[in-house]
Amino acid sequence: MSVKIIWGVVLTTGKRWREMRRFSLMTLRNFGMGKRSIEDRIQEEARCLVEELRKTKSSPCDPTFILGCAPCNVICSIIFHSRFDYEDLRFLNFMRKLNESLEILSSPWIQVCNNFPVLIDYFPGSHKKFFKNVADMKQYFLEKIIEHQESLDMNSPRDLIDCFLIKMEEDNPETEFTIEALVNLVNDLFGAGTETTSTTLRYGLMLLLKHPEVTVKVQEEIDLVIGRHRSPCMQDKSSMPYTEAVLHEIQRYIDLIPTNVPHAVNCDTKFRNYFIPKGTTIITSLTSVLHDSKEFPNPEKFDPGHFLDKNGKFKKSDYFMPFSTGKRICAGEGLARMELFLFLTTILQNFHLKSVVDPKDLDTTPVSRGFASVPPAYQICFIPV
């Protein structure tokens, strides 16, 4: 099903995939991914996030929407060179569609449709709503692209859309750089760059509610390394092994994309006495490494110690691959890692987390586990420090 509607960079193959991935990585890098300018954007958005959380006035709230806005605005700044106000009605509708689409993709019905594609055309169901959401978002992206075309300065690109439009002008007639490809690329970047990070943050805060002793240790490290009077920065991360371990353990434990995205073998392949013909779609299990009991003792237990050595130093693991691995590893891995560190440390620098129920009664089991592991809804109080 996904193959029919998403083919910007995530599920393309051959020349188009090489061109789109090369362009995406180059443009993200030029607009600051891994550099100071992107860090500035995330820090600015983190401060906006804190202000929104203060507006809750320590009252119980569902953090889904607020935690979705922050990473969405970061990707907006890269693609559109602008951000939305958290109360913008169009933004609210946009975020609703993204959340709804992820829940649909992760539902049992979609797993049935993936196994029996003929159902898509003949049966009513949530997939119709999913297609409608994708069409609406693509129409919005197309409108933004047209606006960019009308104000484009070939010598001064403002964002990713400008860079793509300039590439279209420069390339040969058989170019992969078309308006259709741009719409799909933007759609991919939004879906991958917003929902994955926001869901990880939402799930992560729930785990911190469930394990207040972990939260206390992270906040102690924040006090020691960063203090209360400046924003966290990426340079701090190397001095915060426990926080780094917690971030890794959150991603390992939640196993956000259990079966990765579909791949295909590009030649006849023999694997463990199995013959896999060229072109065969394969599904890989990230769960099998993220929850490997030999690498991570008691893998079903949330334990930052999985990433700490006996001296309390951060310990890397070759089994940590929530962003996949190989040539098709997530193009936005660097951006996502930066966002998770800066958003989480900024929240914990400014707020104590309080559960509305006894932490022991919090159930962190995902409510659905299809394309993504979707955390259950919960209420949280952000108490200013």
From TrEMBL:
Pfam families: p450. It is found in: Endoplasmic reticulum membrane; Microsome membrane. It comes from Sciurus vulgaris (Eurasian red squirrel). Keywords: Endoplasmic reticulum, Heme, Iron, Membrane, Metal-binding, Microsome, Monooxygenase, Oxidoreductase. PROSITE patterns: CYTOCHROME_P450. Its EC number is 1.14.14.1. SUPFAM superfamilies: Cytochrome P450. One of its GO terms (biological process) is organic acid metabolic process. This is unspecific monooxygenase. Its cofactor is heme. GO terms for cellular component: endoplasmic reticulum membrane. PANTHER family: CYTOCHROME P450 2C9 (PTHR24300:SF400), CYTOCHROME P450 508A4-RELATED (PTHR24300). Belongs to the cytochrome P450 family. The lineage of its organism: Eukaryota, Metazoa, Chordata, Craniata, Vertebrata.
